[in-house]
Structure formats: structure tokens, C-alpha cells
Amino acid sequence: GLWWLYRGWQSRRPAKFESPSPTELDAITQTLAEVPFFAPLPEETLRLIASESEIVHLSPHAFAVRQDTMGDQFFIIRKGRMAVLRQYESGREEQVAELLPGDVFGEMALLMSSPRTASVKALSPVQVISISRSAFENAVVASGLRREEVTVWLRLSQQLRHSYLFSEMSANEVAHFLKRSERRPVPAGDVLIQEGDV
Predict the structure, then answer these.
(1) Which helix (H) or strand (E) holds 73?
(2) Chain segment 29-63, per-residue pLDDT in tens
(3) Are the C-beta atoms of residues 110 and 59 closer than 8 Å to each other?
(4) Could you tell me how far CA 58 lies from the centroid of its own chain?
(5) Cβ count near 184 (within 10 Å)
(6) Which residues have CB under 8 Å from 10's CB, separation 6+?
(7) Phi, psi for 188 (deg, rounded to 5)
(8) What is the DSSP string of 76-139?
(9) Alpha-carbon gap, residue 53 to 33, rounded angstroms
(10) Are 123 and 68 in contact (CB under 8 A)?
(11) What is d(CA 6, CA 126) in angstroms, rounded to the nearest whole number?
């Protein structure tokens, strides 16, 4: 089952990569299991991803990524709060989102092989899990999602985890819910719910 994945992993493993300690490996694997995108994957796969990851500590005001730079890592916030900042051509910078533990960022640069579209800065002492490009790409393959679906899936799962209605769900339950949901366009003026209907 996982042999093909493992062989692909080994062939693309970064040459200078240093494996995390056993304690860090366990902590990273546990964090992965709490993120809906990774939660449905078998534990062996999660540990393979964790083996190409590390825990990074950031001080307040430190940047994890900067806009317009190329990226080769994907991130999960383990502890602390971070701000997503976008700088416009005029030079004006705006905070467009705040990220909390369990939130993720950095996939767009990997999926599109394009520069980062925003900067992400620590608002407090932060711990992030940094996942290598090859591990993230193998996770995408293992997830069964098409590449164009991954960002939507990640963003929707974050929105659900922050919604009061879904906040008590486990990561696996959120993943289960998302896999059985569908997105559809709704033109302006369309009625979604009619009063009196069951």
C-alpha cells in the first residue's frame, strides 16, 4: 500500500534534510492529525510527512514568509497568533487575516510554483510546523484531491473549524463533512432557503 509512496518520498527527499528527534516527530505527527487536510491519512503517512518537517520558533514581529519571495515550505501554526499582510503596488500594507493554532499557510507558492502572495508575521511567540515541498506534494497525492482543489479545501476546513457550529468537530469529522459537501455558485437574488419549507 504505502511502498510506492515511500519510494517516491525517498527519491525526492532533500539532500541536506535533518530528521526531527523522536520527541519532535511525535509532536509533529500529532499536530498533523489535528488538521483536516492531513487527518484522514494513515499514521504511517503522517509520520513520513513529519520526518520531513520541523518545529520552528518565531518571536513576535518575526516573519515566517515574505510576499513576492519563492517558497518551498508549507506551514501549520502549532502555538500563537500570526497576521497575514498584503502589500499593494501603492506601497500600502494591509492585514487581511489573522491565523490561529491549527491554521495553515504557504500552499499556494508550492502548488502554483509562484511567489508568495502575502507575508505572514508572528503577533506573539509562535511555534509553526514547517513541512518540506516534497512532503507536502506527497501529502497532496495521498489525499486524492486534485491540485486545484487543495487550497479551497484547506481554506474551507479552516473556516469550518472557526465556526461555532463546527468548532467541536474533530479534524477527521471536518474532513468527512467536507468530502461529502459540494460548492456551487449562487447568482445574486437566488433564494437558498424559503421560509416555511422543511
Answers:
(1) strand 73-79
(2) 999 999 999 999 999 999 999 999 999 999 999 99
(3) no
(4) 18
(5) 4
(6) none
(7) -55, 135
(8) EEEES-EEEEEE-TTS-EEEEEEE-TT-EE-HHHHHHT-B-SSEEEESSSEEEEEEEHHHHHHH
(9) 14
(10) no
(11) 31
Q: Which residue has the cell 515574505?
A: 66
Summarised one tens digit per residue, pLDDT across range 179-190 is: 888 878 899 999
Question: What are 152's three cell numbers?
Answer: 479551497
| Cell numbers describing residue 107 | 500552499
Global model pTM greater than 0.90: no
Q: Name the CA dihedral angle for 140, 143, 148, 152, rounded to a multiple of 10 degrees.
A: -110
Query: What pairing do the DSSP bridges indicate for beta strands 53-58 and 73-79?
Result: unpaired
Angle at 146 between CA 167 and CA 53, to 5 degrees: 65
H or E element in which residue 154 lies: helix 147-162
- Separation of first and last alpha carbons in the chain: 45
Q: Cα angle at 36 between 101 and 113, to 5 degrees? A: 85
Q: Which DSSP string do the residues of 38-70 spell out, in sequence order?
A: TTTS-HHHHHHHHHTEEEEEE-TT-EEE-TTSB
* Nearest Cα to Cα of residue 76 among 60, 66, 64: 64
Residue type, 5: L
